[in-house]
From TrEMBL, chain A:
Residues 31-40 have a biased composition (Basic and acidic residues). A divalent metal cation binds at H139, H143, Y160, D337. This is N(6)-L-threonylcarbamoyladenine synthase. Its cofactor is a divalent metal cation. Belongs to the KAE1 / TsaD family. Pfam families: TsaD. The keyword Methyltransferase does not apply. Its EC number is 2.3.1.234.
TrEMBL record, chain B:
InterPro entries: CTAG/Pcc1 (IPR015419). GO terms for cellular component: EKC/KEOPS complex. Pfam families: Pcc1. GO terms for biological process: tRNA threonylcarbamoyladenosine metabolic process. This is Transcription factor Pcc1-domain-containing protein. The lineage of its organism: Eukaryota, Fungi, Dikarya, Ascomycota, Pezizomycotina. Belongs to the CTAG/PCC1 family.
Amino acid sequence: MPIALGLEGSANKLGVGIIFHPPSTPPSPHDSAHSDDEVPKSQSKPSASSQVQILCNLRHTFVSPPGTGFLPKDTAAHHRRWVVRLVKQAIKQSKIQIEDIDCICFTQGPGMGAPLSAVAIAARMLSQLWDKPLVGVNHCVGHIEMGRTITGADNPVVLYVSGGNTQVIAYSAQRYRIFGEALDIAVGNCLDRFARVINISNDPAPGYNIEQLAKKGGDVLLDLPYAVKGMDVSFSGILARAEEMARRLHAGRKGEQDLWKEGDKVIGEEDLCFTLQETLYAMLVEITERAMAHVGARQVLIVGGVGCNERLQQMMGMMAADRGGSVFATDERFCIDNGIMIAHAGLLQHSMGFRTKLEESSCTQRFRTDEVLINWRD
Amino acid sequence: MSSLPIDEAFPHSLTIEIPFPSQRLATAALRSLAVDQELSALVKRDFDLVSATNGLSGDIAQPDSNAVLQVHYKATTPRMLRVAVNGFFESLSVVVQVMEELDVDVLHEKGIEGLEGVQGVEQGLTGTAVGVRS
């Protein structure tokens, strides 16, 4: 039965998902004289917008204390502690038997080395004990395919934004091509590291807490650099400047400097968060629009953890509407790293005959989105 | 423990033997752990499957031969050896946990660990499987 178990652990979220691709019954235009061999390839390709059934989608997040980020060693230890119980619960909740499962899918990269390997070891064990093929999945492709299926967006320009990745992607000739990307750090990484210097909680995610603070701002837009470089973006300079601002804020409060005021307003964290979001998201909207103009697309799909942000969705929506297009986004079950997207992309790969040999199942931190042959699409 | 000749370039070494209940499990462990390369060039590692020697298995019955996973580590410094071996045991813990709770014969037994803070858990498992079984 086309059911896949997906294991995701490239960052601080450990996700285990089980997905079912009900076989569709496409009406055959051929008469009964033709044998099955002559059915053209496009007939047998699973369509992304056909029904999928999510049998279960479990996730446990490793949250580090305020003022800190998650380190590879601790994150890997977290994944090792949780992977077995999540898989057990996933099987229980889906009410399936091992015989029902077609393949074990896992994130092969990109991401953090130790956490990826911790999960890969579990995947390899399951593959052998249950006698199921392994399918190594590219994390970015997982996000894209899940976004397409959940939203029904057929061929959008994809903005993939998370703590580890920032890419503008468009599909062409069986590859997800990268049109633009962050040159240094990802936009989510910029947000997460800024959250550390203003010492806000990392629970449920630092970016979420920045968003809530930013909603309280809006009266003042401070001065941050704007670093779009053609189709690409750069965030490390903006982060450095934002960290400077945070230091100035604290110094003013401690009396080491004058209290920071713009006009009558006493500047607080909410103003810094508001300014940072407006600047970062405007940059992302610009490079997405550039890609849309380049390929003539009208749909934008936002995937990745930063895609949960309502302000980003709003700004992107304004741009898309100006161009007569629309924005697609998923909710936090799917835009934040999860196991279902790995199961989904993995099952698509598996259906086209793709297998990962055990000896070739080591993980890699650098796995480009366009390295994967997207042969389930035309 | 067999004594191996000391490699002068990697003078600090350790041989670990893990007995498993069956060759099937020992093989699965070896193949899962052998895939990832050692991160440091200052550490070398070899895996092997051996049979239990007298007194090794303790109270585990050893009907299978080649059910003992033997790993030989050698490193340039004691610190590198310790780091590598610690990493091995951490990975081994996942291997053993999967065997203990997720193998075909124990998968459907009750879990021994809690699920606090897990998103997506259905309380009481009231969700239906939505027509999975035809």
